[in-house]
Amino acid sequence: MAVIECDPDKARQRLESAGVETEPGNTEHERWRADVDGATAVAYDGKVVIQGGDSARLEGLLREDSGRVHVYFDGASRGNPGPASIGWVLITGDGIATEGSKRISDTTNNQAEYAGLVHSLEVADAYGFEEVEIRSDSELVVKQIHGEYNVNSPDLRKLRVRAIELLDGFDSWSLTHVPRELNERADKLANEAFEDG
């Protein structure tokens, strides 16, 4: 369950401008309700409570700073190729909007890095962010996305095409290479996925 402190009237306007229908609340304390992707938002004075289903889109639409997000991602492979995982962190001016990690199918380290980028962009899109500022410690991914390096691997070419498609869906984007220590949280999450899986 997520609780978003906000003006419920402004939140309702954001939902309706995004094409989400709202309906009156079920009790005298509920201002309004809305359903998206199996999740339900219920507005009260000063806050909106979201529960059930996939709440990412609702949360993204309801957050006042849903315009811009900083995205950190990482991918890891043990064996190269071998068991692989990804981690991601999305940060707004209010702090961490969401973070997570998961195991993916056995793959190479570079494919895992691309999978981390693709998944984090899908999460940013689901949250409704319009501008993404992406940071990665994978020089290969950054330079291939920017067209500075050739993409010789057919598997990496497919992942690059998918990443570019997702990037083109945002109003603006940037992708910058950073040292590993600045991507520490996403790296830690990717490695934790091995322990969880």
TrEMBL record:
Pfam families registered for this protein in UniProt: RVT_3 (PF13456)
Which intervals hold domain RNase H type-1?
65-195
UniProt enzyme class:
hydrolase
**Which CDD domains does the record cross-reference, listed alphabetically?**
RNase_HI_like (cd09279)
Q: Which UniProt keywords apply?
A: Hydrolase
Which EC numbers characterise this protein's activity in its record?
Answer: 3.1.26.4
Instruction: Offer an example of a GO molecular function term for this protein.
Output: RNA-DNA hybrid ribonuclease activity
Record-given protein name: Ribonuclease HI
Which species? Halovenus rubra
Q: What is the lineage of its organism?
A: Archaea, Methanobacteriati, Methanobacteriota, Stenosarchaea group, Halobacteria
